[in-house]
Task: inverse folding
């Protein structure tokens, strides 16, 4: 068994985990992060992308609201390119009139959230599709974030500071030492789900940042943590019906936020307690509810084309389990020191919170780590931009602009989302990549209207060509020296660093530990199924027609259902195969 | 880009299933790299556009000629050409409009100016020195087929002068002549009046102005809206009286019917009244024929006539009514062109950077005409700029089908372009 | 005034128009846009797989249809005898020769032929363009699959590796894309049009001659010329001294565009008026009250008032969900878009899908459609025709999933011809 010695082991590759790794590495600690799938496979990759101003919590949770606005201002600098400065409206619909709007304004003022009431006409001029019957509009500094890119950028910043990031490494057990009175977590045994290799990682401090899986991980140390997984379903529309975040100005509930995100807009969410973080079924009433609620804010919303639906899990922490609804449980961060709580040393759990406050959560965690390690090192993440932040805020036209300026039309592989061959090649070389779904998270492959109809085949063909030419190996390992060459900052840029021959040779030397696991047919089938999984809850009308074209392409034309290697599966095949199709009872409930 | 009328054109981008049929049939993308194709600049790019971005993301949409082959072949109903027109207007609103496009957009003003001293104006515009200068200074291609001002007075002058001889009847029709007939080709108006009167209709020619299309296609939406509103004001009373407003320029009638109201969000009842009253002349004649009201006392016309239906018929979506009616004329051998576009696309082919593209697009049509053999003496097309381009590309005269019809009625000399 | 208005310009509509005009009718075709033929492989798939044996390609489709019908007695093929289906396919083959895009089939008449798919699978089809036939996987010559560097719609390594894996020896090679185009970006149709050019053709032939080994046959993406492809194919075979075949690509389908254009031109020369861009938005019918009603006219959208399209008889060939003949909504409603004909599709979304994208049993939502009688007239609950002058043909017909069965074009040809025979008889 391989063995790694480190000071800090972070378990979980979401926003929080990458944040902890980044913070710890910046403070000069030796850090290893492990993630069982790709970065942001969990909740961080399945949320609506809202950068909270804090307005949503201004009335009921002023502490949370204050945290949000402070972090909002920090992330706009440290993660500038992961954020679109959309601004946000809180709109008062006729049915929402009452005391709430004034309480909202006062709540914002109390914690320092810039909040300006603007004339309705002004709001309608900026967002012509908004419901003209709204009576009041408050503008707050909400934004839209790219949580995939942010996790990559944070992880890259961590690497640059010496951290090691291991994806597709699943914790099989925690290394427990000591007796009844001095139990301690001394690291973890991790299983590389691609190669099957196991590694012992010994650490002075182990951080549980496993999100929805927090409880399961803690149980490995014999610790009981009650995490109440609360499912939130989100629906993405084919194009941006609004360019500003639009919130209902009322007590938070289902389907009251529309977030413009890249080329789409996302409406969310529901809030349903679920027993397990995975798999999640999307129920028909949830989709219908989102569309109906969207239609109240933007009339016509329910008739617009729906691209996809997905669900994420809020890892809500509660010291004692209650049957309360998800939204009533606090969204505050929870840092659990298991030495103090259960007498298990070397082990911290960081949970709760929300994407907007991930940096703060990391700071609190690493402060505690330092305390345990007996060292005093100040946190610098609040003033240290991650790679790429120098590009400034994201804007939706940037890919189109770059394609036009550099004449990259012939490079387009995913035409819907303007993903070029170069982007795919760079991501494949620089980033551990097991499935096309990883590429989707990296560069937005297959996220547009045709949902992989054209690009699944193209991307498969390109990766296969790279493989054949020896210019790329499936590389699941990660080391700081080669990682530095990976310019994550430009992952989203269609024309950056067009691959040269020299470049591809340079990469030939990289360790190839999984050469045999690459199979183009599996890649193709997995991604087709992954896309199908996300569209089945919303297949009707235009998207049903699109799906039929995709069927024509992959069955009638390509005959991929009769390609060889049908028996093969990847670590995520089963996950993709989970049936999201509504059952008869669920439809009857609508 | 979100304007109020996002609801009419915008949602059509949601219909796109990315199938690429439009790009396969686009005549412009077929001949130049400068235009990446209708799907790319249309429903695809539209998802990346928004007001107030740090930079205007794309410019290639300016190379869309607006021929609407994409709309015609799209199996799902995306209004691609309209999306493109909107995107162009967005660029114009952000970047401003070049003087050249402003000038080309003001066909009517040019018409009026030249009309004052047409001989001098024709010399001034058409001598090679000024064409070179126009190309250098303004970017108007020196070879492009610009029209000649009528040296025989305007259509308006003629109509006024001959008022006493005009037929009076209970059956009345309003004639929308457009700028080209008014200042450059009054003979088309004369032939039209003759055809109307032959069928027993009294012709009314109320005050009217340019339909605004040249401005729409150059992205000057504000100015176009003023023009359209003026036309509504001037023509509404006729529409409300139940009279048909019939035009001989397929582009003008299209603008009155649909282009202006749709692109400019002019969806008032008055605008709708104009839409519903407006007809293209052959659409109107075909309706008369279907109702059994069209005179068919045609004389034998022994001629081979290559006919090109202009792109605007695609947008009218009324089939090819001029074909339907000309086919009634005994002896005429109409050869229907299936060429996608003549290339000129309104003012597109006048522009220096687009002249060659327009000629390359038109090659399909010019070759078709050449293939019809030596018996061909002229071609026919309903749209004025297309006829000028056809003449430029084939060296054969080109006629409006209404001239053919007037000749078949024995009222018009096709060669001299005058009433008999 | 037409004798027949065909609504839809897919393969079934064109075959019906052709049959009717040959029978002496005056025919008009109105279509919302172009479609089906531009997407597929350009082959005529009659029956490729059955639900009972989803792994095994059908060997002799016309014979297999009989057992298909036993399983599924209401399948559109059940409306026709085997001989009749064979006749309609023969009509298509003869027509394809007349219009310059000749089709053929397996060496052994009546067999399906297995051809390489763009993913390197073996796809069963009944008739294929001549340009694809040398790809017949029952032939023994090893294949050289040639692609063009940077061409986004063709991956020779993937094709060659999968074919080899399936037992059909193949290797891959690349030529520079610059060899065949100087365009910055080109879709397959534009590449094909570029290869109508003689010099470009000569360059490609010379380059292929250098890389092909004796005894090999050469597979290329289906871009070998648009109007001149038959000449070009012969040239290439002569110059390389090897059999040459095309492999279809992602949409737009060059083989489909060739067929569509040649077919359209032929119909126009026969006097058929074909207008695309006409979307039928309303109909005028007499009310069917127990007895069949009649369609008086249909109306299409124009830039102003609706345009009346009149005819004695009407044939609906608008396709199903993909063709645009049906639409559907969030509540599980699926409807036929023009006449609101009754559909056999379940009106509950819960019943629309089986699990998995590539489910070998397909998805029920794609299997339903318009029920017709033996004369291809849409029928109501009492099995009586709804309108005395309305017929339907093609992939909108109920009880088959053409994409799953690989029967899209076979259904179109057979029912298109047969419906037109029924209405003109």
Result:
């Amino acid at each position: 068994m391989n063995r790694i010695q480190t000071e800090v082991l972070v378990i979980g590759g979401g926003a929080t985990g990458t944040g902890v790794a980044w913070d710890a590495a910046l403070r000069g600690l030796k850090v290893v992060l492990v993630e069982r799938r790709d970065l942001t496979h969990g909740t961080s990759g399945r949320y609506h992308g809202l950068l909270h101003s804090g307005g949503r919590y201004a009335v009921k949770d002023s502490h949370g609201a204050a945290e949000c606005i402070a972090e909002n201002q920090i992330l706009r600098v440290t993660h500038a390119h992961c954020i679109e400065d959309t601004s946000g409206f809180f709109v008062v619909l006729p049915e929402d009139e009452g005391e709430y709007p004034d309480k909202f304004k006062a709540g914002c003022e109390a914690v320092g959230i810039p909040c300006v009431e603007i004339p309705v006409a002004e709001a309608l001029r900026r967002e012509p599709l908004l419901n003209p019957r709204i009576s009041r509009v408050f503008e707050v500094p909400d934004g839209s974030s790219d949580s995939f890119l942010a996790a990559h950028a944070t992880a890259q910043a961590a690497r640059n500071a010496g951290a090691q990031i291991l994806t597709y490494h699943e914790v099989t057990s925690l290394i427990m030492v000591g007796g009844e009175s001095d139990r301690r977590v001394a690291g973890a045994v991790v299983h590389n789900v691609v190669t099957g290799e196991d590694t012992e990682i010994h650490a002075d401090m182990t951080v549980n940042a496993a999100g929805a899986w927090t409880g399961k991980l803690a149980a490995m140390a014999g610790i009981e943590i009650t995490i109440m997984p609360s499912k939130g379903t989100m629906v993405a529309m084919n194009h941006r019906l609004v360019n500003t975040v639009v919130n209902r100005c009322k007590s938070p509930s289902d389907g009251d936020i529309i977030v413009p995100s890249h080329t789409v807009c996302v409406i969310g969410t529901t809030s349903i307690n679920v027993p397990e973080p995975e798999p999640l079924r999307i129920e028909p009433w949830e989709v219908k509810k989102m569309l109906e609620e969207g239609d109240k804010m933007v009339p016509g919303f329910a008739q617009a084309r729906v691209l996809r639906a997905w669900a994420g899990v809020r890892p809500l922490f509660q010291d004692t389990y209650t049957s309360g609804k998800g939204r009533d449980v606090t969204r505050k961060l929870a840092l659990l020191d298991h030495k103090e709580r259960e007498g298990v040393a070397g082990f911290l759990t960081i949970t709760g919170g929300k994407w907007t406050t991930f940096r703060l959560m990391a700071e609190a965690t690493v402060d505690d780590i330092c305390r345990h390690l007996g060292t005093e090192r100040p946190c610098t993440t609040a003033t240290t931009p991650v790679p790429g932040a120098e590009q400034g805020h994201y804007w939706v036209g940037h890919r189109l602009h770059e394609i036009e300026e550099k004449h990259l039309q012939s490079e387009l592989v995913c035409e819907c989302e303007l993903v070029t061959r170069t982007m795919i090649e760079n991501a494949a070389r620089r980033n551990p990549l097991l499935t096309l779904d990883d590429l989707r998270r990296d560069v937005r492959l297959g996220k547009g209207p045709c949902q992989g109809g054209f690009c699944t085949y193209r991307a498969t063909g390109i990766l296969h060509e790279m493989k054949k030419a020896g210019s790329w190996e499936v590389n699941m390992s990660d080391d700081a020296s080669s990682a530095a060459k990976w310019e994550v900052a430009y992952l989203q840029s269609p024309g950056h660093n067009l691959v040269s021959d020299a470049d591809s040779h340079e990469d030939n030397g990289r360790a190839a530990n999984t050469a045999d696991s690459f199979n183009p047919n599996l890649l193709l089938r997995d991604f087709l199924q992954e896309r199908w999984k996300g569209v089945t809850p919303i297949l009707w009308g235009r998207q049903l027609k699109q799906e039929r074209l995709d069927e024509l392409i992959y069955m009638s034309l390509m005959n991929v259902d009769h390609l060889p290697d049908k028996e093969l599966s990847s670590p995520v095949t089963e996950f993709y195969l989970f049936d999201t199709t509504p059952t008869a009872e669920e439809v009857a409930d609508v | 880009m979100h304007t109020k009328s996002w609801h009419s054109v915008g949602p059509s981008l949601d219909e796109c299933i990315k199938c690429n049929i439009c790009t396969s049939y686009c005549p412009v993308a077929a001949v130049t790299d400068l235009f990446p194709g209708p799907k790319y600049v249309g429903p695809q790019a539209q998802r990346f556009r928004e007001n107030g971005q740090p930079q205007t993301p794309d410019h290639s949409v300016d190379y869309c000629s607006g021929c609407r082959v994409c709309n015609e072949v799209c199996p799902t109903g995306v209004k691609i050409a309209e999306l493109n027109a909107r995107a162009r207007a967005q660029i114009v609103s952000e970047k401003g409009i070049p003087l050249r496009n402003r000038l080309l957009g003001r066909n009517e003003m040019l018409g009026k100016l030249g009309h004052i001293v047409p001989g001098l104006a024709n010399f001034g515009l058409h001598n090679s020195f000024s064409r070179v200068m126009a190309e250098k200074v303004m970017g108007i291609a020196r070879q492009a087929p610009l029209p000649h001002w009528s040296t025989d007075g305007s259509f308006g002058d003629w109509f006024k002068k001959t008022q006493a001889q005009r037929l009076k009847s209970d059956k009345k029709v309003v004639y929308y002549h457009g700028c080209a007939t008014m200042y450059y080709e009054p003979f088309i108006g004369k032939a039209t009046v003759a055809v109307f009167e032959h069928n027993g209709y009294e012709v009314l020619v109320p005050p009217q102005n340019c339909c605004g299309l040249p401005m729409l296609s150059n992205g000057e939406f504000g100015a176009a809206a003023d023009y359209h509103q003026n036309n509504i004001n001037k023509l509404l009373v006729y529409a409300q009286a139940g009279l048909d407003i019939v035009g001989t320029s397929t582009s003008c009638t299209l603008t009155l019917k649909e282009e202006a109201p749709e692109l400019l969000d002019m969806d008032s009842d008055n605008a709708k009244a104009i839409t519903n009253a407006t007809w293209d002349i052959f659409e109107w004649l075909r309706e008369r024929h279907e109702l059994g009201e069209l005179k068919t006392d045609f004389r034998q016309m022994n001629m081979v006539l290559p006919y090109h239906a202009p792109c605007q018929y695609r947008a009218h979506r009324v089939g090819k009514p001029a074909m339907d009616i000309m086919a009634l004329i005994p002896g005429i051998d109409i050869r229907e062109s299936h060429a996608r576009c003549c290339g000129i696309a309104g003012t597109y082919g006048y522009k220096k950077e687009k002249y060659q593209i327009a000629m390359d697009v038109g090659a399909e049509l010019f070759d078709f005409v050449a293939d019809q053999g030596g018996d061909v003496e002229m071609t026919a097309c309903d749209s004025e700029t297309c006829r000028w381009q056809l003449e430029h590309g084939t060296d054969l005269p080109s006629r409006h089908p209404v001239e053919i019809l007037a000749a078949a009625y024995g009222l018009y000399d096709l060669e001299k372009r005058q009433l008999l | 005034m037409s004798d027949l208005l065909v609504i839809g310009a897919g393969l079934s509509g064109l075959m019906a128009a052709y049959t009717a005009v040959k029978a002496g009718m005056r025919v008009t075709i109105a279509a919302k846009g172009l479609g089906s033929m531009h997407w597929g492989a350009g082959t005529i798939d009659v029956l490729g797989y059955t639900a009972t044996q989803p792994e095994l390609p059908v060997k002799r489709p016309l014979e297999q249809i009989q057992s298909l019908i036993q399983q599924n007695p209401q399948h559109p093929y059940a409306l026709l005898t085997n001989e009749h289906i064979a006749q309609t396919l023969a009509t298509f083959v003869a027509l394809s020769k007349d219009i310059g895009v000749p089709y053929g089939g397996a060496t052994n008449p009546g067999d399906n032929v297995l051809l390489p798919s763009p993913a390197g699978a073996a796809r069963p089809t009944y008739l294929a363009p001549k340009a694809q036939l040398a790809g017949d996987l029952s032939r023994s010559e090893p294949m050289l699959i040639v692609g063009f560097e940077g061409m986004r719609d063709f991956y020779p390594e993937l094709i060659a590796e999968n074919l080899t894996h399936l037992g059909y020896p193949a290797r891959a090679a690349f030529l520079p894309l610059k060899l065949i185009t100087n365009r910055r970006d080109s879709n397959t149709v534009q590449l094909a049009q570029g290869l109508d050019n003689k010099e470009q053709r000569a360059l490609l032939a010379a380059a292929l001659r250098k890389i092909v080994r004796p005894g090999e046959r050469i597979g290329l993406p289906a871009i070998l010329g648009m109007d001149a492809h038959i000449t070009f194919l012969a040239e290439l075979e002569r110059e390389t001294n090897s059999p040459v075949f095309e492999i279809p690509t992602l949409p737009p389908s060059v083989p489909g565009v060739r067929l569509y254009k040649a077919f359209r031109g032929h119909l126009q020369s026969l006097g058929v008026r074909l207008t695309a861009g006409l979307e039928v938005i309303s109909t005028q019918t007499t009310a069917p009250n127990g007895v069949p009603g009649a369609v008086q006219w249909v109306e299409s959208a124009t830039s102003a008032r609706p345009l009346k399209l009149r005819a004695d008889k009407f044939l609906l060939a608008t396709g199903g969900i993909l063709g645009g003949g049906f639409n559907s909504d969030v509540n599980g409603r699926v409807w036929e878009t023009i006449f609101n004909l009754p559909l056999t599709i379940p009106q509950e979304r819960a019943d629309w899908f089986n699990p998995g994208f590539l489910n070998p049993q397909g998805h029920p939502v794609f299997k339903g459609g318009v029920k017709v009688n033996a004369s291809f007239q849409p029928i109501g609950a009492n099995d009586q025709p709804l309108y005395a002058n309305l017929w339907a043909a093609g992939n909108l017909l109920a009880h088959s999933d053409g994409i799953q069965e690989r029967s899209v074009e076979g259904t179109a040809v057979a029912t298109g011809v047969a419906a037109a025979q029924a209405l003109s008889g």
Chain C has eleven helices and 17 strands. Chain C touches chain A through 61 residues (CB under 8 Å). Residues 82-98 of chain C form the longest helix (17 residues).
